[in-house]
Amino acid sequence: MRAYRKLTGIFKGKASLSVTLFSLEVATVILWATNREALLNREPFGWLYFALVIVMTALVTSLGKLGGQLVFRSRKRLKKGLKEFSTPAPRCNA
Q1: DSSP state letter for 80
Q2: Average pLDDT over residues 13-17
Q3: Distant-in-sequence, close-in-space partners of 46: CB < 8 Å, separation ≥ 6
Q4: Are the C-beta atoms of residues 28 and 39 closer than 8 Å to each other?
Q5: Rg of the chain on CA atoms, in Å
Q6: CA separation (Å) from 72 to 4, 69, 91?
Q7: Which residues contact 14 (CB under 8 A, 6 or more apart)?
């Protein structure tokens, strides 16, 4: 049994999206901390903050989709006979 997983495109995509999301989160928190009233006053920084939140929402959705592809294999891949990485849990006879 292998103790590691091959770094597939899904893992690489998830890793790169995670790094992108983290950097946007840091920028958004800094922007919010320095201009808390900008969104309410409809200043340009407020609109930038709003756009960053929308972009982060799309990134989180994409990360969730990639996570779902990791957990739930597609039927097409299962039909091709690709091996599953997980093993079934042992049964407990109680």
Answers
A1: T
A2: 86
A3: 35, 38, 39, 40
A4: no
A5: 20
A6: 19, 5, 22
A7: 63, 66, 67, 70
Confidence at 67, pLDDT banded by 50, 70, 90: confident
Closest of 90, 87, 71 to residue 2, by C-alpha: 87
Q: Residue 81, by phi and psi: left (phi above 0), alpha (psi -120 to 50) or beta?
A: left
User: If pLDDT is split at 50, 70 and 90, which confidence band does 60 have?
Assistant: very high
Instruction: For residue 84, give both structure tokens.
Output: 């599953």
Q: DSSP assignment, residue 3?
A: S
Q: Model-level pTM?
A: 0.62
| Cα 26 to Cα 66: distance, rounded to the nearest angstrom | 23
Phi and psi for 87 in degrees, rounded to 5? Answer: -110, 150
